[in-house]
């Protein structure tokens, strides 16, 4: 397969016809000016060393060299080569609560934004690890399948907002179940139905625990039995905070018109962490939670998690650049005027 890595550079080739046209115009104008002085044959006899062919040859060489240099700059690539790269690290799925209660501002700038900042720092410390993203409220779905592409992970992370899920609530159990499936297909007996990597696996659950709906503790226990550690980050304050109503200066109210105060359910978070064989840490405006989670992830044994085959194109610009350089060297040794010492060789056929 052949391609140009910088194909847009080839637009510069459009300048070559312009230079050729300009050269032809200049050459004809020069001949007309010379003819104005007298008979062309007589003028040629008066200038025995002048050459009519050499300038055109030199110009042609320069134009070919210029074209080759432009092609070289476009980086022509041909053929394919394969290499196998082995990665070692852990696999981590982030289960992020995006319910409306995560808009509370008891943690600056808000619970959800603080969670994003924390996850961004965790991803900055990942090298060969794999990460996936599950978002949940009253329902849960995979926002990003497990991947080594941290750039995409951060892009998806920044796009997260509560509007992604219409059903409100905090279905932590469903979020954990969805996260477990991200590591590989699981059958009805809670076993992996096909081979998965031997890498250590962890679920990072970030939630305020508000309006807990299902048996998350049982699911966390199942994850532990499958060798998946559940790390829980509680975000918010136990005393709670009102939930801002997006686009207004008001707060969310219940049916009786009372302002809803969302409180961090630390007891439930601790139970899930204990059942999942992990730790619980509360996230505030410091980096304590980030450091604690990073420390736990570093403890996990790193195994070979992936063997990736990369296909690279072989660079071919060197050949074009070398030929262009050779042509420029040849052009340097060709003079516009005849060389008396090699005139008798008649290289350009000017004696005919």
Explain what the structure shows.
The protein is built from 10 helices and 11 strands. It is an alpha/beta fold. It has 2 domains: 2-80 and 312-345, no CATH class; 91-301, Rossmann fold. Strands 5-4-3-6-7-10 form a 6-stranded mixed beta sheet, sandwiched between helices. A 3-stranded antiparallel beta sheet has the order 1-2-11, with helices on one face. Strands 8-9 form a two-stranded antiparallel sheet. Helix 7 links the parallel strand 6 (201-207) and strand 7 (228-235). Helix 1 (15-35) packs antiparallel against helix 3 (54-73) and helix 4 (111-124) packs antiparallel against helix 5. It is elongated and about 110 Å long. The relative contact order is 0.17. The mean pLDDT is 82.
SSE layout and pairings?
Elements lengths: L1 E3 L10 H21 L4 H7 L7 H20 L2 E14 L1 E7 L13 H14 L5 E7 L3 E8 L2 H9 L13 H11 L18 E7 L8 H10 L2 E8 L5 E2 L18 E2 L3 H10 L4 E4 L4 H12 L3 E13 L1 H16 L20
Parallel strand pairs: 3-4, 3-6, 6-7, 7-10
Antiparallel strand pairs: 1-2, 2-11, 4-5, 8-9
Helix pairs in contact: 1-3, 3-10, 4-5, 4-9, 6-7, 7-8
Quick take:
The protein is an alpha/beta fold and 352 residues long. It has helices at 15-35, 40-46, 54-73, 111-124, 150-158, 172-182, 216-225, 266-275, 288-299, 317-332, and strands at residues 2-4, 76-89, 91-97, 130-136, 140-147, 201-207, 228-235, 241-242, 261-262, 280-283, 303-315.
């Amino acid at each position: 397969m052949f391609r140009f890595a910088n194909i847009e550079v080839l637009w510069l080739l459009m300048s070559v016809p312009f230079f050729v046209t300009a050269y032809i115009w200049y050459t004809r104008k020069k001949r007309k000016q010379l003819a104005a002085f007298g008979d062309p044959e007589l003028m040629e006899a008066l200038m025995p060393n002048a050459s009519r062919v050499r300038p055109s040859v030199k110009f042609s060489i320069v134009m070919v060299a210029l074209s080759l240099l432009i092609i070289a700059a476009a980086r022509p690539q041909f053929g394919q080569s394969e290499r196998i790269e082995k990665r070692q690290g852990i696999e981590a799925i982030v289960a992020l609560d995006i319910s409306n209660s995560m808009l509370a501002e008891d943690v600056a700038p808000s619970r959800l934004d603080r969670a994003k900042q924390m996850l961004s720092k965790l991803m900055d410390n990942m090298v060969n690890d794999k990460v996936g993203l599950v978002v949940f409220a009253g329902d849960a779905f995979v926002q990003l399948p497990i991947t080594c592409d941290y750039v995409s992970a951060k892009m998806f992370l920044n796009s997260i907002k509560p509007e992604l899920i219409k059903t409100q609530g905090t279905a932590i159990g469903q979020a954990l179940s969805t996260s477990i499936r991200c590591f590989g297909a699981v059958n009805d007996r809670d076993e992996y139905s096909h081979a998965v990597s031997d890498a250590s696996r962890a679920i990072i659950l970030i939630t305020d625990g508000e309006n807990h709906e299902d048996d998350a503790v049982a699911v966390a226990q199942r994850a532990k039995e499958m060798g998946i550690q559940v790390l829980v980050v509680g975000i918010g304050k136990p005393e709670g905070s009102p939930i801002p109503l997006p686009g207004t200066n008001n707060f969310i109210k219940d049916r009786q018109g009372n302002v809803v105060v969302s409180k961090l359910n630390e007891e439930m978070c601790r139970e899930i962490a204990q059942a999942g064989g992990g730790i619980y840490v509360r996230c505030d405006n410091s980096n304590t939670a980030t450091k604690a989670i990073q420390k736990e992830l570093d403890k996990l044994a790193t195994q070979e998690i992936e063997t990736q085959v990369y296909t690279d194109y072989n660079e071919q610009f060197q050949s074009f650049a070398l030929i262009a350089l050779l042509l420029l060297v040849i052009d340097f040794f060709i003079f516009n005027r005849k060389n008396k010492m090699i005139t008798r060789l008649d290289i350009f056929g000017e004696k005919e």
